[in-house]
Amino acid sequence: MGSGFAEHFGVLFLVVFAAAFPIVNPAGSALIFLDMTRRADHRLREELARRIAFYSFLVLTVSLLIGSYVLSFFGISVPALRVAGGIVVAAAGWQFLQEHDEEEPVAPDAVQEQSSRDGFLAMAFFPFTMPITTGPGTISVMIALGTSHATHDPLQHRFLFDAAALAANATLAVVVYFCFAFADRVQRILGNTGTTTLLRLSAFILFCIGVQIFWSGVAEFLAPWRPH
Predict the structure, then answer these.
(1) Cα first-last separation, the chain
(2) In angstroms, rounded to a whole number, what is the distance separating the alpha carbons of residues 4 and 225?
């Protein structure tokens, strides 16, 4: 029985992790994070990475456990969430594609340095966590997973699924932390040209993900009118 329990737990863990990982895309998101914090030092990036990882875990878990109830309370359908979320994610990807590598002014004194630090920390949830890391696409996926395991499954399975999902979310948050905290190490290895190339590629992938999320929502809206 223990072996079967562990195997079932492992399968559920992989289902949640595999569903969320490609959309979260920690490595690609980390390069965008690195570009937006190019004037921050390594210690500040580590602090930001801890906050982003924690917020990402919260977004994933809340979306999984109560996301469907929140949408129901406000009368928002999952297709509507995907359409709106796809627009937001695609717009963010397009913005990053259009940005030029402009140097930010160096803070002339300690007051401005502290102000810059506070400004970066204020960005930990928006936009670093949402929509860059765990945006509407991730939320809709987690809501769909939570809903599919909440209605017809036995209570024991639901508890097992929730435990596996929490473990998967925690693991993904740890991956997010390491990718973000040590993104500058990758920059040193790749150099400026390699980093800029991968950044633009990541921004394009983010744009494509947004378009795909948007199209999935539109397809769900149009499904009742399709000829059978």
Answers:
(1) 45
(2) 44
Helix (H, G, I), strand (E, B) or coil at 17: helix
From 223, 178, 196, 206, select the one nearest 46 (Cα to Cα). 178
Per-residue model confidence as pLDDT tens digits over 150-164: 655 566 777 888 999
Confidence of residue 107 (pLDDT cuts 50, 70, 90): very low
Q: What is the pLDDT of residues 30-87, one digit of tens each?
A: 988 988 888 888 899 999 999 999 999 999 999 998 988 888 888 888 788 878 878 8
Nearest to 20 by CA among 154, 164, 152: 164
Cα(89)–Cα(127) distance, rounded to whole angstroms?
11
Phi, psi of 74 (to 5 degrees): -90, 0
Which residue intervals of the chain are DSSP H helices?
A: 2-24, 26-36, 42-74, 78-98, 110-122, 136-148, 155-181, 183-222
